[in-house]
Amino acid sequence: QVQLVESGGGLVQAGGSLRLSCAASGRTLSSYAIGWFRQAPGKEREFVAAILWSAGITNYAESVKGRFTISRDNAKNTVYLQMARLKPEDTAVYYCAARRIIEVAWDYWGQGTQVTVSS
Q1: Which of 83, 14, 13 minimizes the C-alpha distance to 48?
Q2: How many helices (H) and strands (E) in the chain?
Q3: pLDDT of residue 86
């Protein structure tokens, strides 16, 4: 089992920045990928970014490339999502998720944190 706890959400003006944190516990994460997803009202959950814990390889959705950066802190077992140049369309509940790198499904999810970008 992997437990994930997100934090750092809030209200920010368009063009501003915010950093989300995902604290992981329960398992050694060397064989896991950690991802960020988001769900806006009335829309399906969508992929935002992911990182392979051991190799540090990252992947981003086209809509956030160049604006968002995913990173990890091995000592703190925490993954961050640094969000810059935020837009109103980035408003959503942001979720942290984990999966074993040999699997496709994201098996573990956090409770989510609200990000609201005002215009």
Answers
A1: 83
A2: 0, 11
A3: 98
71 φ/ψ angles, rounded to the nearest 5 degrees: -150, 170
Burial class (CB in 10 A: 0-12, 13-18, 19+), 51: buried
Place of tokens 């994930």: 4
Tokens of 8: 């750092």
**What's the pLDDT tens digit per position in 12-68?**
999 999 999 999 988 888 899 999 999 999 999 999 999 999 999 999 999 999 999
Tell me the Ramachandran region of residue 69: left when phi exceeds 0, alpha when psi lies from -120 to 50, beta otherwise: beta
Q: Who's near 63: CB < 8 A, 6+ residues apart?
A: none
